[in-house]
Amino acid sequence: MTSPPRVSRRHALALAAGALLATSPLPRSAALATAGALAPSRGFNLPGWLDRDGGPAPATATLEKLRRAGFETIRLPVNGDLVSAGNPATLRRIQNGARDLVGLGFSVVLDMHPSGELVAAFRNDPEAAGAQVLQAWTALRVVVADLPADWVYPELLNEPPMERPAWLALRDQIAATLRASCPLHTLVWGPARFQGIWEIADTPPLADDNQIAAVHYYAPMAFTHQCENWDASPLARIANLPFPASKDMAPVSQLLSKLRAAGDEEAANLVEDELSAPWTEARIAADFADLGRWSATHDCPVMLNEFGVLNFCVDAVSRAAWVRAVRKAAETNHVAWTYWELDQGFGFIRSRQSVEGFDGSMLAALLGS
């Protein structure tokens, strides 16, 4: 297998993107250059395709429109359960998908995204679960090795479901497994357990000269995950929480009164706990200033490879304001970013199959000034 022919295709897209950018206020890439490494930025996550059997691929026309708009990176989740067996058809599908994205001019973060079954396995038998991740990368590294190192970034394990000491040991093993076949690819890793921005502070970087540390940011969860519908969390019963927000704001007081009138102390307490101090642009900026200091201290590039707001019941103005605040705080502190996600609950387009239904306010929040 050979690396994808991409020069002429990418050149054509670059010309088209240049024409668009020449007449728009979109900034150039805010990717971070540290110690000779470049963190891919201005991206989005694309789950639901190569992390499952039969997942729908995005339409080429949709991807082309997104690339012309100014997006440069796609974080592409893959499922360790599917690749650990080394099935040639599964590996070929992942390789072809990544190759096609590179051919369209996108950098690709190939994210080992564990299934619910693998997360449960880490609880029940962490040694066996770790071995399964290593087996998955042993199979997948053949795919990565055949893709261009300056375009494809393997991410070791999303939200490592274990305590920090165990993760650091496994992280080193995964890195060694990849390095055996991929000496030039930049390795991406995040802190355990939730890859939260607050978990990076006490986490040392890899002993590797070519790496990027990656974190997630969804704070406050009562805002970003309000009306979520996939479990029994009290977040499902929180609605219409604005951003910025503080406990003394009328919408927040009304929400707390409504929850308590319904006897829902759990949800009310969650809102009060998260708003114990106001959530504002300044608070977000402070979080990313801390991340920037970690990056400078360790001379390690950083990226925010998940952040987003669920669109089930939030008002559009608050949603765009939070996204803009996070994106600008990241860029101000030289943190690369990929938004979660393209076209599902947190998404900003209606369908990956259509060039219609793009959310203009979200595009402006992500790509505007």
UniProtKB/TrEMBL annotation:
PROSITE patterns in the cross-refs: TAT
Q: Where in the cell is it found?
A: Cell membrane
Name the UniProt key words of this record, in alphabetical order.
Answer: Cell membrane, Cell wall biogenesis/degradation, Glycoprotein, Glycosidase, Hydrolase, Membrane, Signal, Signal-anchor, Transmembrane, Transmembrane helix
Q: What does this protein do?
A: Glucosidase involved in the degradation of cellulosic biomass. Active on lichenan.
Asked whether the UniProt record includes Methyltransferase among its keywords, one would answer no
Start and end residues of each Glycoside hydrolase family domain: 44-343
Q: Which InterPro entries match?
A: GH, Glyco_hydro_5, Glycosyl_hydrolase_5, TAT_signal
The membrane topology noted for this protein in its Swiss-Prot or TrEMBL record is: Single-pass type II membrane protein
Q: The organism sits in which domain of life?
A: Bacteria
Tell me the protein family, please: Belongs to the glycosyl hydrolase 5 (cellulase A) family.
Identify the species of origin.
Answer: Mesorhizobium album
The secretion signal range is 1-30
- Organism lineage string: Bacteria, Pseudomonadati, Pseudomonadota, Alphaproteobacteria, Hyphomicrobiales
Recorded protein name is: Exo-1,3-beta-glucanase D
